């Protein structure tokens, strides 16, 4: 994009809801089963929407992970897959796309984001121990807010978790341009109190899913990286939604309004040593992930990750992906950064949030990939330990066949050492929007469903566990209503 095109792209934001910048040419039929059938389906799923069968769901807002549309170019690229076990052409294509876009040199494909996590988490911990002699019980990792699988991988490897969101990040009444920023004071105090040698890595999650798809500013990424370098702590960019983050920087951060998404992306990634990507989000692939290192500074770590990859994911030039999937991903990384698509996508989320607010449903300010409804506020009669987010998700499904997940106490879980519930800053419900999959009328339908839910909030019941899994409990938990 040249300068003129960029200016006109930025200035063309005249519609609240930009129309779809694509044509739909392959369609997947969906069915809406009856309310009685929905009640049966939810009961059989232990009142956990995550356990519903897809055939019983009308509009699926569970996640935007691997559920979005793929583009013609991505689909076409799959035919060029080279499935050589080692050093395939498809791997080289992915590796050079990563270098071109992010300026990162050492790449390992993985089957999805957590595939990358299971490589770098234990390896960085070992590296810290070897080089700085860390005391295992003090081992602590810090993030603006850990994504659930990143938290789980850190915990099963024995780390204490410190989430360091900025003040008011979870206050759904407060507006801020970059609610995803990491709190620098908290970072400094944590480093001072546990000692830098006990911190194997810092994770910058862009955008920050748990806070509500909220972006991180370039300034914050830069400052965190400077502090981390001073203490020789590696920074991992957890970047499932890198393009959405870049878009928010372009729209909101002074000095970036005429920068392209590509330019902003390249700059953001200078403020990290490695990145871990779930490619199922912005990169739009149904399956795939990437672990990549910026340069040779952490070459030893990279090599150990490669070795671990052989054991866990597959040979490090395919990492659990077939050739075609790597080709598709290489294209998806570029497609993710299209200005007009990002504009449309973020516009769709904004449309939904504004519609919900219009009928008096309190939401987190619009973020990248989802509307986050304040379930705690909507259901004040349900205490956090009865999971208002779950109660609301269940009601929304019963009323309208819409599937959504809780983002609150259930998701956050327990302290893995004391077994106590971790204090949760907000009880939210996430209405996640898969990319280019649902239209404006689906958004209107969701808003209508909330209107009906709202009429009856007093009768919605909280839930209690009948089965609580030991880790990542929200996935397989089963519940009963509290009377
Ligand atoms: C989805 C996601 C992950 C985990 O990736 P999977 O592909 O689901 O394994 C990690 N971090 C963030 C921020 C994510 O959104």
UniProtKB/TrEMBL annotation:
EC numbers: 4.1.99.1
Write down which residues bear the modification named N6-(pyridoxal phosphate)lysine. 281
Molecular function (Gene Ontology), one example? tryptophanase activity
Q: Which cofactor does it need?
A: pyridoxal 5'-phosphate
Extract the PROSITE patterns matched here: BETA_ELIM_LYASE (PS00853)
Instruction: Please name the InterPro entries in this protein's record.
Output: ArAA_b-elim_lyase/Thr_aldolase (IPR001597), Beta-eliminating_lyase (IPR011166), PyrdxlP-dep_Trfase (IPR015424), PyrdxlP-dep_Trfase_major (IPR015421), PyrdxlP-dep_Trfase_small (IPR015422), Tryptophanase_CS (IPR018176)
Per UniProt, residues of the Aromatic amino acid beta-eliminating lyase/threonine aldolase domain are 60-447
- Which UniProt keywords are present, listed alphabetically? Lyase, Pyridoxal phosphate
* NCBIfam families linked: PRK13238.1 (NF009709)
Q: How does it assemble?
A: Homotetramer.
What is stated as this protein's family in its record? Belongs to the beta-eliminating lyase family.
**What name does this protein carry?**
Tryptophanase
Q: Which source organism does the UniProt entry give?
A: Vibrio ouci
């Amino acid at each position: 994009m040249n300068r003129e095109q960029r200016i006109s792209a930025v200035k063309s934001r005249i519609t609240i809801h930009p129309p779809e910048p694509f044509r739909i040419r392959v369609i997947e039929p969906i069915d809406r089963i009856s309310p009685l059938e929905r009640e049966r389906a939810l009961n059989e799923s232990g009142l956990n929407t995550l356990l519903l069968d897809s055939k019983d769901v009308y509009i699926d807002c569970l996640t935007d992970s691997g559920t979005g549309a793929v583009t013609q170019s991505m689909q076409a690229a799959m035919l060029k897959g080279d499935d050589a076990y080692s050093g395939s052409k498809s791997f080289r294509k992915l590796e050079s796309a990563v270098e071109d876009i992010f300026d990162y040199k050492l790449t390992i494909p993985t089957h999805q984001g957590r595939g990358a996590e299971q490589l770098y988490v234990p390896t960085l911990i070992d590296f810290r121990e070897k080089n700085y002699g860390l005391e295992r019980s003090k081992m602590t990792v810090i993030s603006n807010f850990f994504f659930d699988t990143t938290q789980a991988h850190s915990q099963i490897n024995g780390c204490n978790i410190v989430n360091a969101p900025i003040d008011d990040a979870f206050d759904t009444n407060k507006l801020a341009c970059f609610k995803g920023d990491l709190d620098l004071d908290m970072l400094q105090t944590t480093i001072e109190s546990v000692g830098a040698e006990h911190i194997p890595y810092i994770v910058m999650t862009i955008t920050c899913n748990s806070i509500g798809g909220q972006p991180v500013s370039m300034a914050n990424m830069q400052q965190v990286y400077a502090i981390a370098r001073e203490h020789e702590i590696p920074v991992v960019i957890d970047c499932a939604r890198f393009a959405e983050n870049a878009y928010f920087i372009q729209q909101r951060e002074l000095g970036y309004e005429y920068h392209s998404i590509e330019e902003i992306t390249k700059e953001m990634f200078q403020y990290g040593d490695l990145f871990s990507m779930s490619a199922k989000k912005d990169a739009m692939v149904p399956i795939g992930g990437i672990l990549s290192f910026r340069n040779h500074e952490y070459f030893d770590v990279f090599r150990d990750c490669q070795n671990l990859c052989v054991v866990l994911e597959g040979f490090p030039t395919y990492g659990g992906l077939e050739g075609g999937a790597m080709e598709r991903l290489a294209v998806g990384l570029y497609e993710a950064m299209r200005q007009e698509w990002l504009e449309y996508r973020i516009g769709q989320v904004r449309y939904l949030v504004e519609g919900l607010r219009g009928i008096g449903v309190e939401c987190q300010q619009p973020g990248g990939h989802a509307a986050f409804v304040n379930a705690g506020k909507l259901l004040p009669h349900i205490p956090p330990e009865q999971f208002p987010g779950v109660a609301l998700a269940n009601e929304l499904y019963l009323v309208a066949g819409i599937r959504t997940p809780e983002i609150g106490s259930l998701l956050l879980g327990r302290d893995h050492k004391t077994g106590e519930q971790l204090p949760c800053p907000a009880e939210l419900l996430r209405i996640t929007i898969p990319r280019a999959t649902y239209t404006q009328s689906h958004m209107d339908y969701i808003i209508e469903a909330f209107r009906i839910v709202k009429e009856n909030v007093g009768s919605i019941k909280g839930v209690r566990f009948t089965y609580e899994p030991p880790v990542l409990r929200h996935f397989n938990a089963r519940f009963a209503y509290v009377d």
